[in-house]
Design brief:
The chain has 101 residues and is mainly alpha-helical. It is built from three helices and no strands. The protein has one domain (5-53, 77-100). The protein has helices at 5-14, 18-46, 77-100.
Amino acid sequence: MVGTPGALWRLCVADLTREELQRLARLGAKSRLEELRREESAIRRAFPDLFGGRQRQAAGSDARPAKRRRRKSAMSAAARKAVSERMKKYWAARRKEKKTK
C-alpha cells in the first residue's frame, strides 16, 4: 500500500485513459469558467461605473438620463471646400513637378 495520500492520487490519475483525463480536465475548466463569470458579475454589480455603466440613482428619483449629444462637425462646409481646393492645387503642382523631372 502507498504511504501518502498524494501518492495514492497520482496512482489513480495514472490509471485514467487519455480520454477520461481530458474529460475531467474539460469539466474542471467549465467549472472554473462559471466561477469566474459569477465573480465578474459580482464585481460589475459592485462597481458599474468601472465598466461604462451609469451610476445608480437614488430610489424614487425621476431624473431623466442624459441624452447623447451629436458631435459638432470639426469643419464648416466652407472650410472643407477651402481645404479641398488647396489640396487640389497642391497635388496638381506635385504632378507638374514630377513631369518636369
